[in-house]
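PROTOCOL LOG
Step 1. Enter all chains and additional molecules of the complex.
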Amino acid sequence: MQDEASPFDCASQPPEVVSTPTWLVQTGSRLSRLRRARVDWWAGRYLLPASPRPFGRWFAAHVGDGRLLNATTVCLNGVWRTSRSRILQRPKAYYRHLAEQTNVGNLVEAAQYTEFAAGAIFGGGDPEVGPAESA
Amino acid sequence: MRAYGTTIDAPGERHEHIDGPAKGLCAVTEEEVVGDCLRGESGTRHVGEGGITNLAGCRQMCLACVRCSFVSFSVLNADCSWYSLCDINNLQPPPNTAPDYLTVYVKAPGAVRPNVEVHLGAQQQPPSLSLVLADSDATPISLLLEHARLVANYNVSGAALDLSTSRSEGCKPLLSRVEFPASLRVGCMQRPNVGREAGAALDWLTQHYDSLPQTLVFAACGRRDNYNRLARVHRLLLEVESSPHQLHPFPRAFSRRALL
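Step 2. Run joint prediction.
Step 3. Record the structure below.
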């Protein structure tokens, strides 16, 4: 397809960091840096815990393998561009399954994980043609 | 910079959800309101109804209720209330008349599915590009319109704006009261206010999987244009516009690496 090699892009701009007393990650960092991270609360409110936790285990259970985790970078703020051919690398059931993890309430940890992992989820499943920033 | 409350696991550390009964209740539920097990957030059943005689029976009811995740049970109040969300570490104290309230986590709640989709104008072929906005009651109409203008000014024909909205008013009233640019194709899918922008994107994808645009730009729309989102969307659109038939990586002089 003509857009087969087109990049995923989350259009991030510096300085964008997620910072806590225990870990800090900047947009463009590898997702693997978040392997042991959990998001217990957001905007002062507790989140329904993802299953499983922490992020690395959730990613392996619902998104993809370790290669993809290592090859993909962090997205923030819910802005990204992708293409039909990238989305179609996964079956519809893949996205439906993730929706079932995420759409269980409005304060859910899985929604935060999905935001971080947007490049791996919406950018296609093959690390070889994964997000442009991952090279 | 965003603030998250986080912890980091020591390697090999196990984390388990609290699964034993805790004293107290999640929240007061409305009497006689059974609740919607497919789309609701809470509800209540009388003890004695449907074989509910004890906490185990109340849990059984929850297992059969898609949206149920927690139950609060009291024999004295003849109450088996269910909830999709509950802060089990911060339960409400039981009333004096029913100090026997116990609350227990049963299972993860099932997802709520989107239920309405509306398109302005006749159904057409999938657009070449869609800007999908995660919209909610909090989003100012002016911000929606700013995004709409970006797409309307996009130079490639067949671009569309698609709303994945949790507005309580629904799609039809929203599309009829907002004056989107006349030339713009606008789609709207109403969904529950769950999952934040990630859930909105996933719901939209599953609904449109069989008729996807060639290029998809997704953006969350909040109370205001924070995190510079509008400018970022503009940039993403411009890059496609400059090469409408094939997306391309950043030119060297505008590389992400240079920015970061």
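Step 4. Note key features.
Confidence is low (pLDDT under 50) at residues 1-18, 244-260 of chain B.
The radius of gyration of chain B is 24 Å.
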